[in-house]
Amino acid sequence: MRRNHYPTAHAWLWLLALLIAAMAAAAPARGEPLVLDGQARMLYAGGHLERLDDTSGKLGAADVAQAAGWTTLPDSLSAGFTPAAVWLRLPVRVDRIPQGGWMLRLSNALLDDVRVYMGQDGYWTLLGRSGEDLPRQDWPVDYRSPVISFEPPAPGNYVILVRLQSKNALATRLEIWQRLAYDNQSRREGLMFGLYFGFYLLLICAHGAFWLVTRASMSGLFLAYIGNCVFNEVLSLGLVQQLTGLPVGWSDRLLGVGIAISLPVALRVAFRQLNLAALYPRAVRWLDRIFWAIALVCSTLVVSGHYAWGVQPIQTLALLLIVGFSTLTAYLLKRGWQPARFFALAFGVFYISVLIAFLRNLGVLPVNTFTEYVSTLGTMLHMLLLSLYIVGRHERQRRMRERQQANLAADLARQHSQRLEKEVALRTVEMQNEIERRVELEGELRTSLDKERQVFAEQRDFVAMVSHEFRTPLAIITTSAQQLGRNLAAPAEKTLARCGNIRDAAVRLLALVDEYLTHDRMREPRADLRPARCDVPAMLADLERDFAPGRIQSRYGSGDLVLDCDASMLHIALRNLLANADRHCAEGGTVTVSVRAQDDKLHIEVANPGQRILAEDQERLFQKYYRGQNALRHPGAGLGLYLVKAIAERLGGTVVLAGAGGDEPVCFRLSLPQRAAG
Hints:
Elements: H1 7-26, E1 34-36, E2 42-44, E3 50-54, H2 61-66, E4 71-72, E5 77-78, E6 85-94, E7 102-106, E8 113-120, E9 123-130, E10 147-150, E11 156-165, E12 171-172, E13 174-178, H3 179-214, H4 217-236, H5 239-244, H6 248-274, H7 281-303, H8 307-335, H9 339-361, H10 369-486, H11 492-522, E14 531-535, H12 536-544, E15 552-556, E16 562-566, H13 567-583, E17 591-598, E18 601-608, H14 615-618, H15 640-650, E19 654-660, E20 666-673
Parallel strand pairs: 1-6, 15-17
Antiparallel strand pairs: 2-13, 3-4, 3-6, 5-12, 6-11, 7-10, 7-13, 8-9, 8-11, 14-16, 17-18, 18-20, 19-20
Helix pairs in contact: 3-4, 3-10, 4-6, 4-10, 6-7, 6-8, 7-8, 8-9, 9-10, 10-11, 11-15, 13-15
């Protein structure tokens, strides 16, 4: 299963191994001179070179030629970062000299100091000097990398010595071109670079416009990424230096800072493409900060003049990141992480090409056409794949957003329709409720009007009744007083009878006045109670004196027959109950009062023999101004039982009809709490 994650890497490694083996097999025998017969357009010096390191950097050509310690190079020079001056020795045999001679071209554009010597029979001639330590106008040939003209005076055997120094990685190929072939190759190379960087320029312009239109964060990051890569590429190839004459101090610093910044930028691009923030948000945050800090430190070292110290850690970390991301990608592929699939393709090509270039710079791999241009081609393919992915991803996201917006619009329309339906239904219900409410209000108004008419009729009847009730006792009092005044010498019996009539009439008037005053007091919703300790047996004994002797018979149960309540209200309630029973009790009958205490309540029952109260009257006995059929034959205002009920409720008790009369006595039960509330 694991092998399936590395097919591209395996293919590239096998191809690289085969190429190295082929080049090693095709390399000439060590020590053989390079034959210049004037036929070949270009000859590659690999396999004919010898190397000597001058750690002091002070040896001259004659000294180096006589020095010991030369080692044969199997291929081109790949010395990595070294402060020493490296000498290359190339023996050549010139059979025929073509027109214009030859051009010695070194592939590395970042060499600081290049000196080429020609030797024959122990005599050494400086053919030319080049490199970034020299101003561009002093270069012998206007080219992006060092080129020295080689035109020997006559055929024969020669030795070419090349002295190299550089703050960058000391890796280069030595090519020998015929002059005409070199000119043609230079023009072709210029065209190739024009197409190559034209492609990058087109890509940058396209993504710049794309970013301005979409403001996609990945597109903006890609612009920084590709801009940094192009910046480093043109400096590494020496194109900027060739066109502008940029001094080595500036070119090295700009390139070093560009390489340092490329590390965190590439890291962020990899994080975004793999969407690692969704898996490891904290690790992504900290690694981003750490690598930006490393880039800042390395940039500072480069700017301060320590180029190798600033660039070498970046290249080492880049190698570690390639290994780390390759391992992580394989792990994520095994887990089925979708972004890892494209990452393995786009970044796999780039990582392999960069890895080959780094290994070339560090001296692990030889310098040849493949290792020299593999990073350029890999980067180009990498950028193209990333560009297509970003645009395609944005297009997919745009279509997805359009679908989501369409679905959202449909949902909103559906919700709006449902909301309208609900609002219509709700409005319909509200209108129906409003109609019902108005019908109800109309009914209530009609009921109120009916009640108002009823109350008006009751009040009219009440006024008539009250006038009658008051007129009768007053007439009795007036008549009895006139009789007493006319006949002062009347017998004592008649005088006592007339005085009794006056007393009874006065008592009746006082009772009517108490009822009316109590009625007015009870109409006050917040009428204050005046609680006091009431001895019920004593209050009943006092009330019995207002009636004929023996008319009222009281029976008392055991226990505490005392109430805490408003004494005046209780007195009025008891008097109305007794008066009502007395009015409806036949002549010679007896009103029975029973008092008992039970469950913290005092129950007072007033009973009298009488006609049965009709069922329709039972429901309305306690209504104001109501007088039943049995009461029409007796005087009264219809307030007695109404006041009893109102007083009972105000005192926290109840009054009920316990017996309806007929075969049983008419009985009213007044139940009051023995302790006042609060």
